[in-house]
Amino acid sequence: MFMPKKLIHLSILTCLLALLTLSTGCGSSSSSSSSISYTSRSISMSLSSASTSSLSTSSLQTQALSDYSWVLQNKGSLRVYFGDFASDGSTSGTIETASNSGYNNFSGAILDADLNVVAPIVFSTSGGIQTTGADLNGDISNLTLTLNTSTHTATATGSIDTDLSSDSTSYTRVDSSSIPVSYGNAGKGSAARTSSPGSSSLLDSDHDGLINIFDTDNDGNGKVDNADATAGAENTGFSSTIASAILFDNLKIDYTNSANYTVTNDTVLTVEFTPYDASKISSIIIYRRNSHYNDCTTTINATGFTALETYPAIGTTWTSTGYKLYKMTNLSGSTVWTVFLTPNNNSFTAGDKMLAKVTLTSGGVEYYWLNLNFKYQTIVADTTTWNHGGAGSQSNPYLILDTGGRVFSWTAPKDETGADLTGVVYSLELFYYNSAGTQVGSRQTVAVGTDIYTSSIPEATIDLFNSSSAKYIQCDLTASYPYGDNSANKIYFKRSSW
Ligand SMILES: [Ca+2]
Ligand SMILES: [Ca+2]
Ligand SMILES: [Ca+2]
Ligand SMILES: [Ca+2]
Q1: What is the pLDDT of residue 60?
Q2: 225 by DSSP, 3-state: which?
Q3: 436 C-alpha vs ligand 3 centroid, how far in Å?
Q4: What is the pLDDT averaged over residues 374-398?
Q5: Ligand 3 centre from 66 Cα, in Å?
Q6: pLDDT at 33
Q7: For residue 351, how far is its CA from the centre of ligand 1 (angstroms)?
Q8: Selecting from 1.10.10, 2.120.10, 2.60.40, 2.40.50, what CATH number does the domain 242-275+277-371 have?
Q9: How far is the centre of ligand 3, averaged over its atoms, from the C-alpha of 473 (Å)?
Q10: What does the alpha-carbon distance between residue 14 and residue 99 come to, in Å, rounded to a whole number?
Q11: 371 C-alpha to center of ligand 3: Å?
């Protein structure tokens, strides 16, 4: 399922960070030309298992050493380097340092063939503290990473004392079995939470053992990263090419189907890349992915998106497209590369990753990691009292009184663990229709707020398009994060006299 082994795939960037400043600053900013001078460092490492027997009796039993890959991220540049291990556990590659503060500091992880993090790389252990950062001061020729599949740590030994010095500001919290607290919960489980996160400048901000690009909740406060406005830029911070890259999940259901929808068939997974300059992008594909995404088929592109290249028919297997993303303009007129997917399974889950390959028109190639932070296991559930008739469907809307506003109430959508999603922004989106079922007037939005479960639509809003012969209203109970990843429950209602 993996691409050819022994190849080393590095996130080779064609531009220096100085250009990032220019491209985001939109102008010629004096820019003091703080171009950063990188030094290439060759690294050669070998992976070994602490215990062959534990490998063969654990859930990792199907893993050969060649199924694992390594990831190292530079704390200063945020550049990400990765490679595969050969069947004998060896690997080599080149990573980069610079003299700027933090630019010789790395944290990393070992991933399995499904791109799941099996262990952070631990550079030293002292007094129960597992240090997960290190300063690189030269080439590394003989680093051994010993993977302990009981404690889910990969401990580095070898030239650690000469060319690599551990950095105690980066460490992972561990549980009573010495397992990093993020293991098995994608970094957002109760064990991974913290009320005292570390510095946001750390690659593993909340010391749970997962670097931010793989952590679903960077600050450990229990709210997924999607609730943070910068989430789309989290994996692109090093890039002068891509402003935002995000993988998210939508589940929008008609109220009348709210008892019989399935996550498997009704979820829409969305991948969206927003470049700084679309003319620099040749193509974007998902180069590797968790096998839960292998069942995906393409589904219709979202409302308001216009394809700029041929978009596949609904139901096309994504694999047959080469896991391609498509150039489109989005609602706000930006050019993006995106794809809308039906998962065709309910096994996909938080932490499932994709690795995207961006090919530039210059011929250069860049890689970006994407992490699914949560999935909607349920939609927003309506708990409004409807006692004047109707069924909530388009053909038989709920009836309401002929005067007055209307109070709605609901409960939160649940995530893949069955927990209520929090940090969610709710709104009521209203669409008005005439008796022929044609939309009249303009969409109205009643803003509700974050984690608030009731709201009312004012009388005047309900009656806003009476003069346009509005005969019923579609009300979407919408729960969303900043990126359009939302759950909606579409309910139809009308005044009794309409
Ligand atoms: Ca976390
Ligand atoms: Ca973390
Ligand atoms: Ca994250
Ligand atoms: Ca959070």
Answers
A1: 44
A2: helix
A3: 46
A4: 94
A5: 26
A6: 37
A7: 11
A8: 2.60.40
A9: 38
A10: 19
A11: 7
Tens digits of residue pLDDT in 81-119: 999 999 999 999 999 999 999 999 999 999 999 999 999
| pLDDT on residue 30 | 25
Cα–Cα distance for residue pair 123/132, rounded to 1 Å: 6
Distance 27 CA to ligand 3 centre (A): 30
Q: Contact 209/170 with Cβ under 8 angstroms?
A: no
* C-alpha distances in Å from residue 106, one per residue of 13, 310, 370: 17, 41, 19
Q: Residue range 367-378: average pLDDT?
A: 96
Alpha-carbon gap, residue 490 to 381, rounded angstroms: 10
Tell me if 205 sits within 8 A of 133, measured CB to CB.
Answer: no
Q: Which pLDDT tens digit goes with each residue over 20-63? A: 222 222 222 222 335 899 999 999 999 987 654 444 334 444 56
CATH code, residues 381-495: 2.60.40.10
307 or 4: which leads in pLDDT? 307
Is the confidence at residue 2, as pLDDT, over 50?
no
- Which ligand has its closest atom nearest to the C-alpha of 219? 4
For residue 218, the CA-to-ligand 3 centroid distance in Å is: 5
Q: Which residues surround ligand 4, an ion (CB under 5 A)?
A: 217, 219, 221, 223
Tell the burial category of 260 from Cβ atoms under 10 Å away from its Cβ (0-12, 13-18, 19+): exposed
Q: How far is the CA of 128 from the centre of ligand 1 (A)?
A: 20
pLDDT over threshold 90, residue 73: yes
By the CB criterion, residues less than 5 angstroms from ion ligand 1 are: 187, 192, 206, 208, 215, 217, 220
How far, in Å, is the centroid of ligand 4 from the Cα of 183? Answer: 17
- Ligand index nearest the alpha carbon of residue 232: 3
User: How many Å lie between the centroid of ligand 2 and the Cα of residue 213?
Assistant: 8
